[in-house]
């Protein structure tokens, strides 16, 4: 019997090395993808809040709107939803659909003092697992807000309107 020493193929060690390299690359790609998804959600939150802010600016600038925003429970705030739009006649024309937070467990919130307002939404967790609020506001200087608070009313509680 003759043994063929010229067999072609890969050794077990070569295969294990290639599989290990592919595994490392997959882990690195997965981590990068997770980071990009979080950044995309944050960008959407900021974009939605900017859209809401511009829409409310348009609403407040309308000639027949002298009373400002209603239905925000004072400076405690409320969720920006269809109920809020219904309380402010004319906002339905500006917002045919309500922007929805990319995290289905979260909502956009608004607080106002007539023509002064602040809008917020939670961003994705940072490296420490903390979720900060992203805010836009108009007609006053924002101070006293707590961007790390869990609840919207705690975020706006310290604002000097």
UniProtKB/TrEMBL annotation:
The chain crosses the membrane at residues 12-33. InterPro entries: Bac_GSPG_pilin, N_methyl_site, Pilin-like. Pfam families: N_methyl. Keywords: Membrane, Methylation, Transmembrane, Transmembrane helix. The keyword Transmembrane applies. Coiled coil: none annotated. NCBIfam families: IV_pilin_GFxxxE. This is Prepilin-type N-terminal cleavage/methylation domain-containing protein. It comes from Candidatus Vampirococcus lugosii.
């Amino acid at each position: 019997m003759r043994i063929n020493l010229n067999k072609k193929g890969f050794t077990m060690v070569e295969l294990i090395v290639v599989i290990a390299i592919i595994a490392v690359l997959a882990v690195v790609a997965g981590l990068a993808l997770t980071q990009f998804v979080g950044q995309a959600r944050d960008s959407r939150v900021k974009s939605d809040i900017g859209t809401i802010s511009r829409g409310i600016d348009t609403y407040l600038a309308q000639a027949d709107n002298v009373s400002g925003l209603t239905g925000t429970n004072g400076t405690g705030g409320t969720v920006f939803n269809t109920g809020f739009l219904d309380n402010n006649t004319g906002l339905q024309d500006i917002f045919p659909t309500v922007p929805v937070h990319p995290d289905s467990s979260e909502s956009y919130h608004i607080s106002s003092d007539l023509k002064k307002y602040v809008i917020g939404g939670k961003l994705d967790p940072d490296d420490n697992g903390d979720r900060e609020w992203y805010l836009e506001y108009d007609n006053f200087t924002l101070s006293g807000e707590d961007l790390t608070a869990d609840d919207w009313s705690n975020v706006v509680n310290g604002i000097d309107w």
